Amino acid sequence: MIRRLVLENGAVFQGEAFGSIENGMGEVVFNTGMTGYQEILSDPSYCGQIVTLTYPLIGNYGINRDDFESITPYVRGFIVKELCQLPSNWRSTYTLDEYLKIKNIPGLSGIDTRKLTRMIRTAGTLKGVFAGADEDTDVLVQKLKQTTLPKDQVSQVSTKTAYPSPGRGKRIVLVDFGMKHGILRELNKRHCDVVVVPHHITGEEVLQLKPDGVMLSNGPGDPEDVPEAIEMIQTIIGKVPLFGICLGHQLFALACGAKTEKMKFGHRGSNHPVKELKTGKVSITSQNHSYTVSSVDDTPLEVTHLAVNDHTIEGLKHKYEPAFTVQYHPEASPGPEDANHLFDQFLEMIESIEKEGVAVCRSV
């Protein structure tokens, strides 16, 4: 069946439909990863977006039960150059086509994804809509121009109620703004006693859980659309050690008086080099974000990491309180594990603060 992608700039890409028969609208973005399409598909940070994969052959190892980053995918569409219908992998339980049908997500294959990617890099991210062969292009373009995409993505993907992931180690409150399961896996691997809480939790409610530390998760959309989270972070800074990832990094920055802005086409892929300013060490990182921290002037924040490619801010720490954040994904699903040690650094910071507290108590 023929399916078209119509963009707000009037461009049209025609190819073969797969997945759901329903058509959808969203912001068209691209990811440069060569592998990991299942993790990309199930990453809540893509909520409301139509994802283009630049690697030409997708679906060749199918879909398995273990590599999901959320139970429910929130992407509005999936675009590939060539779709593999006969995957070869002993873990595979569905083809990509079968899985998208189950989850009611439309797909498009057989288009020039290189051309589409270059267009996005030139014009910036664009609104797009999937359509049938007979639908009027001019009408669709006009509709796209008049449509404002939803800004409540975090409320769509965050858990509605708190729940535990028990362990015998440090009590970590994980604030879910669109959490990837990889973050929870890394904390569980370190025996943490995790309580996952919704995005609208207040600072007082966080502190009532008596955490040893607080993690701010990744998530979709503009950080300025989550003012309640900014207020929560302002309440807990200095009262409990804090570690933020991606959207959590941006929200932490805003809570400290920094500024954020939307990027032209964002960072999405598993091969982004990031430099740690203190040591000069470069790590290859997994990234997925549309917004960046643009300025930390006149704030209590220090820049710790920069992107090698475009020099955008990739890491922050508070100058006076036990808190640090990164824009990239140390849980790396998919992606390299160069930055995985940041979870250990977080727990070491907690232990250090606890030892200082004991020392102060003994000296009084």
UniProtKB/TrEMBL annotation:
Pfam family membership, one: CPSase_sm_chain
Residue ranges spanning the membrane: these are none
Keyword Nuclease among record annotations = no
Keyword set, alphabetical order:
Amino-acid biosynthesis, Arginine biosynthesis, ATP-binding, Glutamine amidotransferase, Ligase, Nucleotide-binding, Pyrimidine biosynthesis
Q: Where, by residue number, is the active site? A: 246, 329, 331
- Positions contributing to L-glutamine binding: 45, 219, 221, 247, 250, 288, 291
Q: Where is the signal peptide?
A: none
Using the UniProt annotation, give all residue ranges assigned to the region (CPSase). Answer: 1-170
Task: Write down the superkingdom of origin.
Answer: Bacteria
Which Gene3D superfamilies does the UniProt entry name for this protein? 3.40.50.880, Carbamoyl-phosphate synthase small subunit, N-terminal domain
Q: In which pathway does it act?
A: Pyrimidine metabolism; UMP biosynthesis via de novo pathway; (S)-dihydroorotate from bicarbonate: step 1/3; Amino-acid biosynthesis; L-arginine biosynthesis; carbamoyl phosphate from bicarbonate: step 1/1
What's the EC number here?
Answer: 6.3.5.5
Q: What class of enzyme is it?
A: ligase
Q: Name the catalysed reactions.
A: hydrogencarbonate + L-glutamine + 2 ATP + H2O = carbamoyl phosphate + L-glutamate + 2 ADP + phosphate + 2 H(+); L-glutamine + H2O = L-glutamate + NH4(+)
Carbamoyl-phosphate synthase small subunit N-terminal domain location? 1-131
Return the similarity comment.
Answer: Belongs to the CarA family.
Q: Subunit structure of this entry?
A: Composed of two chains; the small (or glutamine) chain promotes the hydrolysis of glutamine to ammonia, which is used by the large (or ammonia) chain to synthesize carbamoyl phosphate. Tetramer of heterodimers (alpha,beta)4.
The entry's function note states: Small subunit of the glutamine-dependent carbamoyl phosphate synthetase (CPSase). CPSase catalyzes the formation of carbamoyl phosphate from the ammonia moiety of glutamine, carbonate, and phosphate donated by ATP, constituting the first step of 2 biosynthetic pathways, one leading to arginine and/or urea and the other to pyrimidine nucleotides. The small subunit (glutamine amidotransferase) binds and cleaves glutamine to supply the large subunit with the substrate ammonia.
Q: What is this protein called?
A: Carbamoyl phosphate synthase small chain
> Which lineage?
Bacteria, Bacillati, Bacillota, Bacilli, Bacillales
